[in-house]
Q: What sequence folds into this?
């Protein structure tokens, strides 16, 4: 439900953008979608600490995902917001300031590869009678996850517009349930976090480190 | 085959290793840790969920002095005063529920003013968490926005590591308050503990950004090319213990320097390059000339709105060099041409090396010129009034004359605070203790108690308004019981003066609920066995102040000042700093 709400908001904002562009260009020009990537320790309460940085400034989070990263014990947050560069940069610094946060990146959509996953539950009868499942699967890149007598569940992975398109297509055919995941994103230019982590584990931030101190001397290094 | 001798040797070896281990409760290991961290004074208040810690404290009376405050808010403000006066970490104990929620104002105050604190709160048993148990509150989530770091301990084995981290986080980098919430079972838990190890590294936390020499070079180049350079310094200089480095920098460059309210005292008031206070009630020259300077060098300050006034008309002509330990402060409110990240204790000497020796005589003369105008129109009438009514300024002038600038001045919030910060003389750093960022009324009395413990050899004077005093008067009880020799000076104008001033100037004199009445403060103090007197005539003022300051123990002096005096100069809200009013 939260996702549906934010979804509507995004659509509304984009129309507002085009309308108001003519009236006050300077004000809205800078606002666009940014994906913030946070590398952090996996610690109880950190999600709240990060979330209040946005809510304190009355900034809505459009999408939020948290999951393990490529490194054991380090979590990765993906946060999508619609804001100007200046605001996003300040937010990123405030997030990075939190004790358990290692590093924050923020990127525009052309700097990342991203996906969202959507699931659609429709009546099997309805689908069988009125549309050809095959067409759906092909046209929208959907896959059938479950097919039962009473209902069928389709899955689509893609950008917002792609998952939205299938919602539209299924609307006439009794879309029983719909859910979409948060955005997950990979930064095109990123070389991963392994090298960075070594720097963080060193007492002085060095340029290059031969060994990963944390893995070698885990007991001696404070972790959360 | 094992001989008996071998067995004995083995047993002895075992005994030797177990000596480094400590067997005891979570509470005991916590108190051991505090001793290891060099803590000597704790401000606190017991209660159900922190009883095991207080039980252990009973045996630590020779190592840890516990000051029983009268309210947890008083406890945390006292710890703030202690930290600000001493440069050490302030420590607070409080129980769960209301004990912990009473800390919130102090945490917010310490967070915005970067004061290092470690607060220990008791919490209900871990198995009761989330059951709405008696005196259970979600302290971690309530305090998250107002702490630098917080952590809930549910297992005694975590205590040492968490405490070590808490002290490291509180005092390193940009300091701030840390809260540890310990469930009652962890306090009681019997364990074998290893030796206490202090923390000096957390992988996800970089207290100081790496100093980049290229930015120092750029900053030096800009400073060397400046015709009208101007330094704005804040508490960062004091927190970084960089007063000497700062003085060397301004002495070499000859650049006029003005302070934010939190930076006051980092260099003596009498220093020839100290041109005064910035901001809403700051001095005339520093405000007006902010909009004339060509290069502004901001050091350990954060361009608060009370300093900048209207931001889009603030120093637009100037190129800004900003030195700060907290990268999030650079470009936050004012765009920096050159941002120098780092601890000013390290960056200032590097910068001093690269800047040219200089004297900006003509530019300094401009500050003096504005200062003269302010002296004539504002300062002289305030310090040497001719009317019958006493002014707050003349009280401060008398204090300066008696103490010569060596006292620690703690203020509350309001008109008296602005007057005290404007007119008090300081020879030493860590002598001006005030609630700058949060503006917490009720801060003054408890903070002064803490400051006395933090600087026991200094005269500590708490200057408080009649309104603010009535927010935390219960701490007179703490003075009564533990004897902190705090001099309490109430400047009574029988109004909530600052709000009244705004109502007069901006709300057509509609005095809405600023007319506050007071009890007999002298009788109140005496009921706590604290010496007290009251002055309502100028003729008795000097003598009364001398009596207060020379009195052996604590003393309360109430001075009746003019009812409707205003603090000037003033930058009205929403106006530019150059539109500062002298009346």
A:
């Amino acid at each position: 439900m939260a996702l549906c709400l934010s979804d509507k908001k995004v659509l509304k904002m984009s129309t507002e953008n085009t309308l108001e562009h003519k009236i006050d260009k300077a004000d809205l020009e800078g606002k666009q979608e940014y994906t913030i990537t946070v590398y952090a320790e996996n610690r109880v309460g950190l999600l709240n600490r990060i979330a209040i940085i946005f809510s304190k400034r009355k900034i809505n989070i459009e999408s939020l995902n948290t999951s393990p990263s490529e490194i054991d014990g380090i979590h990765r947050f993906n946060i999508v917001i619609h804001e100007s560069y200046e605001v996003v940069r300040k937010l990123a610094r405030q997030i990075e300031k939190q004790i358990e946060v290692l590093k924050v990146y923020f990127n525009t959509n052309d700097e990342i590869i991203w996906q969202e996953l959507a699931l659609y539950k429709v009546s099997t009868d309805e689908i069988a009678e009125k549309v050809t499942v095959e067409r759906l699967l092909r046209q929208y890149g959907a896959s059938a996850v479950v097919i039962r007598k009473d209902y069928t569940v389709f899955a689509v992975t893609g950008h917002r517009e792609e998952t939205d398109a299938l919602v539209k297509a299924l609307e006439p055919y009794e879309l029983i349930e719909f859910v979409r995941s948060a955005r997950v994103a990979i930064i095109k230019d990123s070389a991963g976090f392994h090298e960075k982590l070594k720097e963080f584990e060193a007492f002085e931030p060095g340029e290059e480190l031969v060994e990963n101190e944390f893995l070698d001397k885990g007991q001696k290094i404070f972790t959360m | 085959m094992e001989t008996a001798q071998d067995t004995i040797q083995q047993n002895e070896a075992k005994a030797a290793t177990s000596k480094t281990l400590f067997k005891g409760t979570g509470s005991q290991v916590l108190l051991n840790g505090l001793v290891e961290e060099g803590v000597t004074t704790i401000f606190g208040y017991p209660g159900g969920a922190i009883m095991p810690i207080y039980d252990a404290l009973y045996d630590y009376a020779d190592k840890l002095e516990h000051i029983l405050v009268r309210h947890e808010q008083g406890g945390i403000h006292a710890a703030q005063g202690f930290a600000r006066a001493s440069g050490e970490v302030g420590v607070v104990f409080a129980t769960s529920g209301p004990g912990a929620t009473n800390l919130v104002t102090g945490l917010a105050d310490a967070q915005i003013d970067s004061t290092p604190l470690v607060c220990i709160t008791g919490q209900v048993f871990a198995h009761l968490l989330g059951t709405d148990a008696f005196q259970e509150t979600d302290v971690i989530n309530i305090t998250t926005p107002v702490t630098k770091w917080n952590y809930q301990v549910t297992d005694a084995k975590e205590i040492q590591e968490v405490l070590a981290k808490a002290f490291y986080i509180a005092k390193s980098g940009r300091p701030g308050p840390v809260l540890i919430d310990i469930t009652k079972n962890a306090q009681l838990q019997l364990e074998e503990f290893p030796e206490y190890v202090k923390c000096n590294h957390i992988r996800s936390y970089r207290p100081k950004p790496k100093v980049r020499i290229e930015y120092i070079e750029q900053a030096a180049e800009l400073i060397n090319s400046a015709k009208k350079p101007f330094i704005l310094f804040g508490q960062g200089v004091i927190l970084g213990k960089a007063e000497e480095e700062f003085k060397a920098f301004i002495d070499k460059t000859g650049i006029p320097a003005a302070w934010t309210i939190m930076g006051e005292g980092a260099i003596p008031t009498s220093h020839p390059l100290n041109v005064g206070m910035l901001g809403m009630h700051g001095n005339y020259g520093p405000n007006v000339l902010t909009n004339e300077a060509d290069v502004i060098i901001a050091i350990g300050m954060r361009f608060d709105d009370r300093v900048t006034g209207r931001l889009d008309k603030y120093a637009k002509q100037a190129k800004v060099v900003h030195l700060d330990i907290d990268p999030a402060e650079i470009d936050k409110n004012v765009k920096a041409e050159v941002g120098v990240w780092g601890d000013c204790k390290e960056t200032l000497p590097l910068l001093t090396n690269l800047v040219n020796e200089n004297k900006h005589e003509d530019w300094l003369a401009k500050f003096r010129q504005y200062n003269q105008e302010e002296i004539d129109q504002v300062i002289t009438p305030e310090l040497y009034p001719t009317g019958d009514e006493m002014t707050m300024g003349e009280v401060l002038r008398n204090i300066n004359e008696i103490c010569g600038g060596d006292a620690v001045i703690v203020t509350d919030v309001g008109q008296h605070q602005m007057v005290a910060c404007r007119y008090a003389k300081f020879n030493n750093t860590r002598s001006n203790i005030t609630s700058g960022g949060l503006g917490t009324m009720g801060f003054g009395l408890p903070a002064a108690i803490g400051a006395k413990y933090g600087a026991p050899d200094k005269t500590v004077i708490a200057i408080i308004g009649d309104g603010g005093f009535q927010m935390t008067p219960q701490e007179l009880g703490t003075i009564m019981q533990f004897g902190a020799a705090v001099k309490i000076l109430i400047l009574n104008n029988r109004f909530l003066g600052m709000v009244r001033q705004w109502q007069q100037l901006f709300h057509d004199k509609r005095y809405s609920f600023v007319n506050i009445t007071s009890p007999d403060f002298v009788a109140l103090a005496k009921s706590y066995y604290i010496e007290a007197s009251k002055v309502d005539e100028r003729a008795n003022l000097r003598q009364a102040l001398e009596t207060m300051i020379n009195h052996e123990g604590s003393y309360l002096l109430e001075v009746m000042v003019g009812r409707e005096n205003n603090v000037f100069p003033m930058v009205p809200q929403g106006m530019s700093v150059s539109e500062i009013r002298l009346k």
